[in-house]
Amino acid sequence: xxxxxxxxxxxxxxxxxxxxxxxxxxxxxxxxxxxxxxxxxxxxxxxxxxxxxxxxxxxxxxxxxxxxxxxxxxxxxxxxxxxxxxxxxxxxxxxxxxxxxxxxxxxxxxxxxxxxxxxxxxxxxxxxxxxxxxxxxxxxxxxxxxxxxxxxxxxxxxxxxxxxxxxxxxxxxxxxxxxxxxxxxxxxxxxxxxxxxxxxxxxxxxxxxxxxxxxxxxxxxxxxxxxxxxxxxxxxxxxxxxxxxxxxxxxxxxxxxxxxxxxxxxxxxxxxxxxxxxxxxxxxxxxxxxxxxxxxxxxxxxxxxxxxxxxxxxxxxxxxxxxxxxxxxxxxxxxxxxxxxxxxxxxxxxxxxxxxxxxxxxxxxxxxxxxxxxxxxxxxxxxxxxxxxxxxxxxxxxxxxxxxxxxxxxxxxxxxxxxxxxxxxxxxxxxxxxxxxx
Length: 438
Known about the structure:
By secondary structure, the chain is α+β, with helices and mostly antiparallel strands. The chain is built from 11 helices and 20 strands.
């Protein structure tokens, strides 16, 4: 059975639904169908995310993508649609060496008018039991290479959002505008055909024929044909593009989260730390060692603990990644409890894992056109915080590349910031290097 539509969006996570929404808003008469292999919206890696958002980036590209997206989220909440937005702030805890290394990045952020506060040792005493120094004869600190904290960098326009509410927002507006969704539809392969039509020779499309992606073959044997295919499948992009010879420069890597109860005692005191934000909770903390972070989840009275581990963590696609309790016990817990002793002896009551779609070039997303299709991937763990901007860029790139409206060479983001429409492409990529990463 063959189904047809004008635009087929593959992927029902944050990027796919934002893209579908803006495509439909720009072209209300087009028949746009969004499909996903999961039974509902945002149930893949979007649902497994730490769902943090920040605008504290040194590059103008990242700033435009994130700051405009956060401003849009704030406006959505003001309009009466709750996204679970909580701007508790990010607090980077830095050693003396890290503070010096980040001087240039901090200066760039200030030049970009990003609100920041620098906190010294006295300010950091507001975080209960935070250890900012270690004695020279501390054997555990020596073994783990832990250093004292000399600086805190606080970004107040940063925080968390509920990913299920976010995808519901875009889905509802897409459907209200006449868009269609189909869940539980797994794509087996993309369809590549001669752009000028088949001539009846075996093995088409042949090397001398121009080719375009014309749709998708589903796992149930049916097919969906479309004038334009938009691929927002995150870590699964390679599975669909590699067989066609398209390199999207993305590799998947598993990321884990561990939930620690904080309903009483010293952990409850830490959770409800005052003085940093209107929520009267402790900020999202990034420890100086190994990128270990602590997310306060006040509504659940929990902390979520995670880490963006690099060397030693394989790039590998996993359909059902599982969290490793040993990773928490032996990698995270010793560092966590050294800096925040109230976590000593604590064990997670829940744990889960998802995957990041890492851009292997510069850790920035890709939004590009190839063989008549559009691809958005490689968000490198920042998909939610850039979702609105990327959705707008996909819609603008459709006009620019597919419809040929070359005069519209910039995309206007929510708060008036603009970017070249193809700045995240492969061929005309123009992305400032990021100096400030977790």
